[in-house]
Amino acid sequence: MTGRRELQLPDGWRGPGPWDNVGECIFTRHWNDGTLTVDRADPRILISVELLDEFREGKRTPEVTVTGDVLRIEAANRTVIYRIGDKVPHLHAYYAEWPD
User: What secondary structure does DSSP assign to 12-45, as a single string?
Assistant: First the structure.
């Protein structure tokens, strides 16, 4: 059994700005051994304000942390780091991208 979580753009939405060409970040919790794996991590994503707040408060998985404007996912198969950028108010989300 697994639990799957996706950090992605709402279906069918595209708009102007740097967030026009965003992908998704999908990770899975494997309940048999408790590990977290990253299934897909695109260089640019949108993350909802609510989910980002839950990560900041430590209410989700301990492998996902937010320090300042850096979101870090330390999974069994890889580590993914996103820099949180501009807020996208009409989507109630933040733009995030891999650091340079």
Answer: T---SSGGGG--EEEEEEETTT--EEEEEE-SEE
Q: In the chain, which ranges are continuous DSSP H helix?
A: 49-56
End-to-end CA distance of the chain, in Å? Answer: 36
pTM for this predicted structure: 0.80
CB contact set of 5 (below 8 Å; sequence gap of 6+): 26, 27, 28, 29
The pLDDT tens digits for 47-84 are 999 999 999 998 888 999 999 999 999 999 999 999 99
| Percent of the chain topping pLDDT 70 | 80
Q: Phi and psi of 56, rounded to 5°?
A: -60, -40
Task: Round to whole Å and give the CA distance between 85 and 95.
Answer: 5
13: number of CA atoms within 13 Å, CB side? Answer: 16
Kindly indicate the confidence band of residue 2, based on its pLDDT and cuts at 50, 70 and 90. Answer: low
